[in-house]
Design brief:
Number of helices: 10
Distance between the termini: 44 Å
Strand order of the largest sheet: 3-2-1-4-5-6-7-8
Largest sheet: 8 strands, mixed
Strand content: 5-15%
Order of helices and strands: EHEHEHEHEHHHEHHEEH
Radius of gyration: 18 Å
């Protein structure tokens, strides 16, 4: 079994990320990784760090606003510094967990990009890109996916918006207009970002060193989590009720499954953007494999990063 080394996880302060981080911290000695918790600085980040330490883990909190690519770059530099100084064990896994669903697609990140796309996709693309040379093989990159990128009967019934792909530069552009775009537009933006993550996973695997495996974890629908906090009150109330139905995913159930993706030998073979729904490897829809879109996303991402850097 590979020594667990260090695991970096973004968005560790609440819901899925918090329960994943604490599940990793609670592992037996010898299976417990050092944890790098990357999230917004403040009381919540301090609290989850303290809780992880109480379970026996070595922890470093790294304050970072994922809506700022400058902040993300600084966080990556901090990680490289810790590794170079021998302050943490070798970096074996990065879990790109953080996510948001902005209720208004006119909202922009610090760099001027549509907020959902910026946090869910661009921030992680920058973080991973800046750390690709810092992993010690065998290593894993686990991205957070969602099946919302395509519609099925139940998603249509619930009004869940599927992706409407466009050039990534367009996806990164905030909406305009006097009226807030509403939940449909927000849902499309979220699904577009999740489709981008699938495309990115495939292209990242082609470009990463052989010892780095890239996979995607889908925790299942978790009604009532913070992703829906910008939704209408009635919608949030319905989500809380649905969250009590037996078998529906919850952060408490899905967090340990995400931790397992980063650490367990069971998943060590996963690569090429393999998609796991809870505990089951699952084929993605044909539209989620598109070599031209994947290459264009990679190039467009570099363009968007350069623009952000030039503006600061």
């Amino acid at each position: 079994m590979t020594e667990p080394g260090t695991v970096l996880i973004t968005g560790p302060t609440r819901n899925l990320g918090r329960h994943a981080a604490l599940a990793m911290a609670a592992r037996p000695h010898g299976q417990r990784p050092t944890l790098l918790l990357v999230g917004r600085a403040g009381r919540d980040l301090t609290a989850v760090g303290d809780q992880a330490r109480a379970r026996g883990a070595r922890v470093h909190e790294i304050g970072c606003d994922l809506a700022s690519l400058t902040d993300v770059r600084a966080a990556a530099a901090t990680v490289r510094g810790l590794l170079a100084a021998g302050a943490v064990r070798p970096l074996r896994a990065l879990v790109a967990n953080a996510g948001t669903m902005s209720p208004d697609t006119r909202r922009a990140s610090h760099d001027g990009y549509e907020l959902t796309f910026a946090v869910n996709y661009l921030a992680h693309a920058r973080l991973i890109g800046d750390l690709l040379g810092s992993f010690t093989a065998p290593a894993r990159v686990v991205l957070l996916g969602s099946n919302t990128y395509h519609a099925n009967f139940w998603r249509k019934l619930l009004g869940v918006a599927e992706a409407r792909w466009a050039d990534p530069v367009e996806l990164a552009r905030p909406a305009t207009g006097e009226q807030a775009p509403g939940m449909t537009a927000s849902g499309v933006a979220y699904s577009n970002a999740k489709l981008a993550i699938l495309y990115y996973a495939h292209e990242l695997q082609r470009r990463a060193d052989a010892g780095i495996n890239v996979s995607v974890f889908e925790p299942g629908w978790m009604p009532g989590t913070a992703l829906g906090r910008g939704a209408p009150v009635a919608f949030q109330a319905i989500g809380r009720v649905l969250g009590r139905i037996p078998g529906v995913s919850t952060p408490q159930r899905s967090g340990p499954l995400l931790a397992a993706m980063a650490l367990d030998e069971k998943w060590a073979h996963l690569r090429d953007g393999a998609f796991v729904l809870k505990t089951k490897p699952t084929e993605v829809q044909p539209l989620a494999h598109d070599l031209d879109r994947e290459r264009r996303l990679w190039d467009a991402t570099a363009e968007l990063m350069e623009r952000a850097d030039a503006s600061h």
